[in-house]
């Protein structure tokens, strides 16, 4: 009972709020950025631009893992204690790295990277040969007509629930893409969450080295695959149906290769009281 102690720190609330604000700031980049590229780029160049955007988005976590690896080598109280007085090393189970330092560095870089966005024009001139899809133009004309009607009648805008039920949730392609994205990110997040701990436990690596290995080996192939996929779509000028077939084929082969993980592994460590008796 003397060893039990309830936590009295509420710093997790600040971390929670900080991540929430970061998510709010990062969210518009994907929908608005892709729409911006799609509206003001040639039709054959759009897949490459979008693939480049997603490739950079995958390289970001890679540098994040490397930065986390460097920060994990520094003691958590760096700047507040004399580092020469610390007798433990990163290989010690009691070692806690400077996890908070990455937030400061990444936040400062994000703030500087956001400045050029303030100077982007609201609209650009349509390049020659830009996408003039009949469906898109029809939707735009319908939207303009609807807007004029609403303006003249001065009617109230529709509620989000009506828009979701009438347009979005009734679209089978959108629902299919939504569920497939949920499945992909669900597995991907679990992979990144538990793989560092697996490397630490099974191979005796430190937290810093585990993060470095994952950042260097796992994410670059994904970014490269996204970029190559954009080049393939540009070369063969795939439409929606062709892109869906291409994505299904690649996902199916990735699933088959993913099954090989079940045949790779190490024996569990012997833990007294858990896997064997204390005797």
TrEMBL record:
Species assigned in the record: Nothocercus julius
Protein name: Solute carrier organic anion transporter family member
Membrane topology: Multi-pass membrane protein
Keyword Disulfide bond in record: yes
Keywords: Disulfide bond, Ion transport, Membrane, Transmembrane, Transmembrane helix, Transport
Domain of life: Eukaryota
Ranges annotated as biased composition (Basic and acidic residues): 126-144
Chain segments carrying region Disordered: 126-153
GO cellular component, one term: basolateral plasma membrane
């Amino acid at each position: 009972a003397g060893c039990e102690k309830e936590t009295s720190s509420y710093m997790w609330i600040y971390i929670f709020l900080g991540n929430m604000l970061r998510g709010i700031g990062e969210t518009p980049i994907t929908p608005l950025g892709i729409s911006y590229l799609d509206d003001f780029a040639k039709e054959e160049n759009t897949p490459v631009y979008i693939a480049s955007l997603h490739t950079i988005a995958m390289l970001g976590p890679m540098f994040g893992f490397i930065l986390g690896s460097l920060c994990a080598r520094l003691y958590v109280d760096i700047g507040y204690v004399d580092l020469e007085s610390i007798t433990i090393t990163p290989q010690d189970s009691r070692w806690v790295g400077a996890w908070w330092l990455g937030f400061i560095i990444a936040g400062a870089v994000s703030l500087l990277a956001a400045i050029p966005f303030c100077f982007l024009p609201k609209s650009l001139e349509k390049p020659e040969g830009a996408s003039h899809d009949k469906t898109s133009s029809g939707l735009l004309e319908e939207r303009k007509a609807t807007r004029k009607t609403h303006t003249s009648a001065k009617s109230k805008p529709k509620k989000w629930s009506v828009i979701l039920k009438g347009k979005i949730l009734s679209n089978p392609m959108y629902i299919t893409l939504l569920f497939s994205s949920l499945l992909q990110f669900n597995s991907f997040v679990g992979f990144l969450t538990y793989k560092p701990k697996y490397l630490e436990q099974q191979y005796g690596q430190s937290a810093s080295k585990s993060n470095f290995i994952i950042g260097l080996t796992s994410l670059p192939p994904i970014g490269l695959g996204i970029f190559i996929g954009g080049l393939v779509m540009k070369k063969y000028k795939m439409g929606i149906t062709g892109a869906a077939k291409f994505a299904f084929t690649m996902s199916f082969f990735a699933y088959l290769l993913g099954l090989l993980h079940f045949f790779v592994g190490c024996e569990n460590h012997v833990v007294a009281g858990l896997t064997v008796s204390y005797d």
